[in-house]
Design brief:
The complex is a heterodimer of chains A (279) and B (355). Chain A is of the alpha/beta class. Chain A is 24% helix and 32% strand. In chain A, 51% of the residues are buried. In chain B, the strands form two sheets. A seven-stranded mixed beta sheet of chain B has the order 1-9-8-7-6-2-3. Chain B has a four-stranded antiparallel beta sheet with strand order 5-4-11-10, with no helix packed on it. Classes of the chains: A alpha/beta (279), B alpha/beta (355).
Chain lengths: 279, 355
C-alpha cells in the first residue's frame, strides 16, 4: 500500500456539505470539503476506495467514492435506504458531516495501462465505477478501447446523466445503454445489461472488465463476459457489506477469509469465485 | 527463577497498586462463581480459585465502551468532537495461560494487522501481566490440545507457579525483573526448574481423557476446515443446534467482533459506543435495505468455527484462534461448544456413530 495515502483512521474529520444534487429518485450527490485546510490538502484517494461517513446524531456508514483522484470535486452519491442515509438526505448545504478514510484497496490503474477497458454497470452500480471512468478518461492515451455498457430499470434510473454527456464528448469513448422496458422517446437498447453485453462486439484479448450492479445482474454479466473469452482474473468488481470500522477490526464485512474493508472492496472474479460465500 | 511466599504476594499486589489498577480472580460473594474482575479489596485475590467464568478480554476490550463523544448544533453548524482518554495502567494478576494466550491473540489481531486499533492500544499500553500456572484442569479444559497451557510460555511480566509452600516466580520482562528486585525476592536454586516441570507434568496428566484424545483431532479439524472438506450436512447439523444467543462469542478469550452505534443523550451530546457483537446473530451481516448476504444459521455458525480453527485465521493470530479454555462448551445451550464441533468433524471423518 502506498504509505503517502495515510487515511483518517479513528476520529472523523469534519467536512462541510457545499452542494447537493438530485441524481435519480432517492439518490442524491453530496459535494463536500474538509474543514481543516491541511487535511483537505492531504486527502488523496485511489479509484475504488471508500470512506466511513458520519451523519452527526444518526451514525456512520460506508460509502464508495465516485470522484476521480485528480481534478474532480469531492462527493458521495447515496441512495436513501436506511436510518443513517435518510438522515443524510435531510441535510442541506452548509451542514457538517464526518469523514474517515479513504479505506480499501481500490481499482488497479498502473497495472492495466495499455489495456482495453469494458465498464459494465447496472443501476446505481455506476457510482463506484465513476471514479475509475473519469480517471481513465483523464489519461485516455494510456488505454486501448474504453467502453461503457450501462443499464437501468428505466431512463429515469440512469445515474450521472451530465457526467455521461461529458464523457461522450471525449474521443474514443464508446457507450451503450439499455433499459428494462420500452419507453416513448428512448432510442437505446431495451432489455437486461447481460443481453446487451452478449450482443456487443467487445474486445477480448488484452482487455479488463469492471462490473458493478445488483447480484443477479452481476452474475449474468460475468457469464456473458466469460463466454466471450475474458479471463476471470481480468474481471474486476467492487463489493459492499455492512461495515462498522473500515479498518479490518469489527469483522462485519468478512466474506470467506477476506475482509471487504482491507482486502477489498475491489476483487477479481477469480477471487470472488473462491470466497465460498454468496455475493 | 525466584521464590515468593504467600505473605509476600500481598506485598507484591500492594506495590503494583501504587501504579496500577488491580484485576484478578475472586469469588463472587453471592453467586459463588469465580470472576476475573477489578479488586478493590486485594485480600479477595484467590490464585487457587477455579477457572473464572469470564476471560479478562473485557479489561482491554470492554463489553460496552464510549470511544468518542460529540456535540452537533445544527443551528450554528458547530461540531465539537471529544476524544476519550482510555489510558489507565492496569495489572492483571493470576491470568491462566489460556487467557494469556487469548490476550496475545487479541494483541496480534488489534495491533499487528494493516491498521492499529487505537482504542485497544490505549488499554494495552500500560499493562502489567502476572500469569499463574494451572495446577489442575477443570472438566471443560482442553488447553493441552491447543498448545496454550497449562503453563504460560511468554507474554507475561511475571509468571507464578504455586508449589504448596509458596510461589516460583519467573520474570518475562524488564518490568517484571524490576519488581522482583524491588521486593528483594530470593533466587530459587536449580532444583526449582525440576520442581516446576513436575508440577506442570502432573497437571497435564490429570486432564480428562476427552482432552488428551482430542489432541490430534483438533489439527485434523483445522485441516478439514481450511480445505473446505466438511460436508454441508455437518454444518447444517451444528447450525440446527444453535440458539443464536451469542454466549460462545462473549465468553471466548479471542472473539473480538464489535458493533458501533451513535447514541444521543438528553444533554444534547452523542456518544459513539462500541459494543461486543457476535457472528451468530442474524443481523450481523444485514445491510441497509434489509439485504442479508448470510442467511441460514448453519452458514453463520460455520464462520465462528472457521475463525477459531482455520489456517487463514491462524495466520492473523500466529496460532489457532481457540485457546482451549472450554468456556463455550460450558455456556452453550445447544451443546455445540468447540470440543463438540471437533467431535462432529471427527465422526464425519471416521464414520463413527453418534453414540
Amino acid at each position: 500500500m502506498n504509505k503517502s495515502l495515510v487515511p483518517i483512521v479513528s476520529i472523523p474529520e469534519i467536512a462541510t456539505i457545499v452542494d447537493i444534487r438530485d441524481e435519480i429518485e432517492e439518490v442524491k450527490s453530496f459535494y463536500f470539503t474538509l474543514d481543516r485546510p491541511e487535511i483537505e490538502e492531504a486527502f488523496k484517494i485511489r479509484s475504488g476506495q471508500f470512506i466511513m461517513c458520519t451523519v452527526f446524531k444518526a451514525g456512520e456508514f460506508a460509502v464508495s467514492l465516485p470522484f476521480s483522484p485528480e481534478n474532480d470535486r469531492k462527493h458521495i452519491s447515496v441512495r436513501r435506504v436506511g436510518k443513517v442515509t435518510a438522515a443524510l438526505h435531510r441535510l442541506e448545504p452548509g451542514d457538517k458531516i464526518g469523514v474517515r478514510g479513504p479505506f480499501g484497496n481500490g481499482f488497479p490503474f498502473e497495472e492495466i495501462k495499455g489495456s482495453n477497458i469494458i465498464y459494465v454497470a447496472g443501476g446505481i452500480g455506476l457510482i463506484p465505477l465513476r471514479s475509475s471512468i473519469v480517471h481513465v478518461l483523464q489519461h485516455r492515451q494510456d488505454f486501448g478501447r474504453v467502453i461503457l455498457v450501462y443499464g437501468a430499470k428505466s431512463s429515469k434510473e440512469l445515474m450521472y446523466k451530465e457526467s455521461i454527456k461529458e464523457w461522450q464528448a471525449t474521443e474514443n469513448f464508446e457507450t451503450h445503454f439499455t433499459i428494462d422496458r420500452p419507453e416513448p422517446g428512448w432510442s437505446g437498447e431495451v432489455g437486461f445489461v447481460n443481453h446487451l453485453t452478449a450482443k456487443l462486439d467487445l474486445p477480448v484479448s488484452n482487455t479488463v472488465a469492471f462490473v458493478c450492479g445488483p447480484p443477479v445482474m452481476f452474475n449474468a454479466v460475468i457469464k456473458e463476459l466469460k463466454l466471450k473469452g475474458i479471463k476471470e482474473q481480468n474481471i474486476y468488481s467492487t463489493l459492499e457489506r455492512h461495515m462498522k470500522c473500515g479498518i479490518g477490526k469489527c469483522q462485519h464485512c468478512a466474506i470467506g477469509r477476506t475482509l471487504v474493508c482491507v482486502d477489498g472492496p475491489v476483487y477479481t472474479y477469480k477471487q470472488i469465485r473462491t470466497l465460498g460465500e454468496q455475493i | 527463577m525466584y521464590w515468593l511466599t504467600k505473605e509476600q504476594l500481598l506485598l507484591l499486589v500492594k506495590k503494583l497498586a501504587e501504579e496500577y489498577k488491580i484485576f484478578g480472580p475472586r469469588h463472587d460473594r453471592v453467586s459463588g462463581e469465580v470472576i476475573f474482575d477489578h479488586l478493590s479489596d486485594w485480600s479477595e485475590l484467590d490464585l487457587q480459585a477455579a477457572i473464572p467464568y469470564n476471560p479478562p478480554k473485557f479489561i482491554l476490550f470492554p463489553h460496552y465502551e464510549e470511544i468518542l463523544k460529540y456535540r452537533y448544533q445544527p443551528e450554528t453548524k458547530e461540531v465539537r468532537i471529544e476524544q476519550i482518554n482510555l489510558l489507565e495502567p492496569k495489572a492483571l494478576i493470576g491470568l491462566r495461560s489460556c487467557d494469556l494466550t487469548g490476550l496475545l491473540c487479541l494483541d496480534r489481531f488489534f495491533l499487528d494487522q494493516e491498521y492499529v486499533d487505537e482504542f485497544y492500544l490505549a488499554h494495552r499500553k500500560k499493562l502489567f501481566i502476572i500469569s499463574n500456572t494451572c495446577l489442575r484442569p477443570f472438566p471443560q479444559c482442553f488447553c493441552v490440545c491447543t498448545d496454550s497451557g497449562p503453563a504460560a510460555k511468554d507474554g507475561f511480566d511475571l509468571d507464578l507457579t504455586f508449589t504448596g509452600r509458596g510461589y516460583l516466580v519467573e520474570a518475562g520482562s524488564k518490568k517484571g525483573l524490576a519488581l522482583i528486585a524491588d521486593l528483594h525476592l530470593p533466587e530459587a536454586g536449580p532444583e526449582a526448574l525440576t520442581l516446576k516441570k513436575k508440577i506442570v507434568d502432573d497437571s497435564v496428566s490429570s486432564f480428562d481423557r476427552f482432552a488428551l484424545e482430542n489432541k490430534a483431532w483438533i489439527s485434523r479439524a483445522t485441516n478439514r476446515l481450511t480445505t473446505g472438506f466438511i460436508k454441508p450436512e455437518v454444518w447444517e447439523y451444528i447450525g440446527n443446534q444453535c440458539f443464536e444467543c451469542g454466549a460462545c462469542s462473549f465468553v471466548c478469550p479471542t472473539c473480538s467482533c464489535f458493533n458501533i452505534e451513535d447514541a444521543n443523550l438528553a444533554s444534547g451530546e452523542t456518544n459513539r459506543l462500541r459494543t461486543w457483537d457476535s457472528c451468530s446473530f442474524e443481523g450481523y451481516t444485514k445491510m441497509a435495505g434489509d439485504n442479508n448476504p448470510r442467511k441460514p444459521v448453519e452458514d453463520r455458525r460455520n464462520k465462528r468455527f472457521f475463525c477459531k480453527l482455520s489456517y487463514s485465521q491462524s495466520k492473523k493470530y500466529l496460532r489457532p484462534g481457540c485457546v482451549g479454555c472450554g468456556r463455550c462448551a460450558r455456556v452453550c445451550p445447544g451443546d455445540i461448544g468447540l470440543p463438540n464441533v471437533v467431535t462432529y468433524i471427527r465422526r464425519e471423518i471416521t464414520g463413527e456413530s453418534g453414540e
